[in-house]
Amino acid sequence: MKLTVISIAAFVALLLAVVLIRTWLHTPADEEAVEPISHTADVQRAATRLAEAIRFRTVSHQNDADFDAAAFEGFISWFTTTYADVISAAPMERVGRYTLLLRWPGSEPAAQPILLTAHYDVVPVIPGSEGAWSHPPFGGVIADGIVWGRGALDDKGGVIAQMEAASALIAAGFVPRRDIYFSFGHDEEVGGGGAAAVAAKLAAAGVQLEWSLDEGSFLFEGMLPGLDKPFAAINVAEKGSVTLEIVASGTGGHSSMPPRDNAVNRLAEAVLALRDEPLPGGLSGLSAEMFDAASRHMAFTYRIPFANRWLFDGMLDDTLSATTFGNAMLRTTIAPTMLNGSVKTNVLPIEAVATVNFRVHPRDSVQDVVDHVTRVVGTEHVSVRLPFGGGREASKVSDADSTGFGVVSRAVREVFPGAAVAPGLMIAASDTRHYGKVADDAFRFTPMVVTQEDMTGFHGTNEKLSVETLGKGVLAYQRIIELAAAQN
Question: What is the CATH class of 240-385?
């Protein structure tokens, strides 16, 4: 008995030692030292121009009848005048209806070009919510060091930061070695037809980009437990998307004599079954790579489970899956968004329909999603329809060891000393689903710091961007352009 207790104690001690040693060794990989940027951007000019840009109500709509052409024409006129210096060096053309494409010629035409992109269309403000804004959503107000308004973060801030960076470099006499394209979409929020037209135009001209950089992730501050520095997730892929209809049938009739099983009950059971049996996930592939890199910068106790996944993998999966962000990183997500049933309050519907949106993880295909849903909910009275086309597969995964990723990573570390950098997965959609077709690698990242509070402004109330953050974004894009121009 005594020997057994000693053996158990020895085993526990050995196990603890292994866990602690592995955690102690779970530290950031060695990176080439960089010199932090010492100069600053003209932040007040950048802020003023962003505020001006916000005042144009460039809201994109699926329905052409709701499209305010005057707002888009006004923005383009303002853009052309404001950035006449950039357009002089990088001639601009309109592609599609209102998407803007600029080409800054390089000194070595044979060098493979790159593309920087953003979009200037914005989502609508929810009717009736205007009073909840600290400043009018299209007022373009600068107050307390913050630029307020729809589009500040998504994504006019990116447009202005890129143009301010180019303007500053041109004023300094900079000439890129390779061609640098800028593309500013007018309809990213409704599918990106302008970006698709740009990609088609480049393809027709035989242009194959070495890499592209679009909106995506940011430098997140205070959003990962145990991480006390900004975390830059440079997205190397984005999820796909498919929307399905779950259709339940039943006997119609008067609501005063309902059967036990009607279409609505069956539909409710199907939706709950889908919630309770999500698509398989797990910390693997790109998701594992991102959390592994981020965790190396965390406090010691938070590093323990990531450094010892052989012991804590199940716990990690459960813990991450319990959060909205973690769950979205680990698997294809399921989001019921619309319900439709009877035409009248006292009529039992013959058919009840739930519209469900899925964001497809790179490990899955659209067909995998259809098969899973059919298996989970399919019965004699419940079927699955694919009414909105064939869906969109997840993008290919770009190379995190490539020159382009290295350029963006280095620029981030120069402008934001101490920031943690890792490849990430974009859980929403961007225009890069189009631009990526003519790029060897495609990255999705905006070099600006955001907090959880800032994130609530995306497509919501009180969207804003600090003047300081915008200025850092300008510097980061300057360094991206300079570093890209120096690459062979």
Answer: alpha beta
